[in-house]
Prior knowledge:
Blueprint: E1 3-5, E2 8-13, H1 15-21, E3 30-32, H2 39-44, H3 51-63, H4 69-79, E4 85-90, E5 93-97, H5 108-122, H6 125-128, E6 138-143, H7 147-156, E7 162-169, H8 175-182, E8 188-193, H9 197-208, E9 218-219, H10 226-229, H11 232-243, E10 253-257, H12 262-272, E11 279-284, H13 289-296, H14 320-326, H15 331-337, E12 338-342, H16 345-355
Parallel strand pairs: 6-7, 6-9, 7-8, 10-11, 11-12
Antiparallel strand pairs: 1-2, 1-3, 4-5
Helix pairs in contact: 3-4, 3-11, 4-5, 5-7, 7-8, 11-12
Amino acid sequence: xxxxxxxxxxxxxxxxxxxxxxxxxxxxxxxxxxxxxxxxxxxxxxxxxxxxxxxxxxxxxxxxxxxxxxxxxxxxxxxxxxxxxxxxxxxxxxxxxxxxxxxxxxxxxxxxxxxxxxxxxxxxxxxxxxxxxxxxxxxxxxxxxxxxxxxxxxxxxxxxxxxxxxxxxxxxxxxxxxxxxxxxxxxxxxxxxxxxxxxxxxxxxxxxxxxxxxxxxxxxxxxxxxxxxxxxxxxxxxxxxxxxxxxxxxxxxxxxxxxxxxxxxxxxxxxxxxxxxxxxxxxxxxxxxxxxxxxxxxxxxxxxxxxxxxxxxxxxxxxxxxxxxxxxxxxxxxxxxxxxxxxxxxxxxxxxxxxx
Length: 356
């Protein structure tokens, strides 16, 4: 599988190059340059396939032969000493628990895979001698509204080939998350920004297109990086293997809390590869630019609003560009694959209390 920019489909690059670049030179996001048909692969999976085995097999199906099976197995073994779990909360309704990783955030899955992949591939001579990971090193610049910073800090901490800079908005992450991303030290530096997550994200993106920084081996650990996004598809497939025998006539939907829209984008990529899931629903907080787009056909980013679900406080979700590209810049095609709803703080807190 090769990757191209959402803004220019004519210059495909390898997964390794896309991962170490993070953002395409033209400012676009890397996305797969083709849509593989993995429906046969999905159908062949056992209902009880272990998560690590599924992750290794799916990575091989997507990225082989660029990355050898041996390296893929090493990456997966290093990345995942945890697994998702599926819990029934009422008849026909299940919660996919993604908080069993080291930072208790769902982004542990993507961050751990990315950190492990970079670490293993930086030791390869082919990467050392290419533009990817100059001199066998990388510098991660990433923005966080909470979850990403915690997961990235834990995943990359102590990896001696990689330095990490995390930008986070002052007063807009939880006290626990701030401690998680500011107290590790070593190769992880956290910078508090007087602004919103969107400001942090703009600063991070600007670094990748700044000519003055072009000699540095910069990359990102946000979901703009395909190395963060691709592994998030793993748990959709894993959940499907557990759910397919329970669903009525095979019909079920994923309902996904959405801020920067990376999580649901990973699931929609899996659907495009042949995962037989009927429906995806994005649930946003007051930052409702995507629900508004699906209603009006107009995408109108705006400054983010602070809510109780701070990790989802994104007023201009980066992955909208990937979804818009996937669905041919057509709101009608977009609507055929995804619904989106906004939920206020009161409803969110009442639902949490009821489920607990």
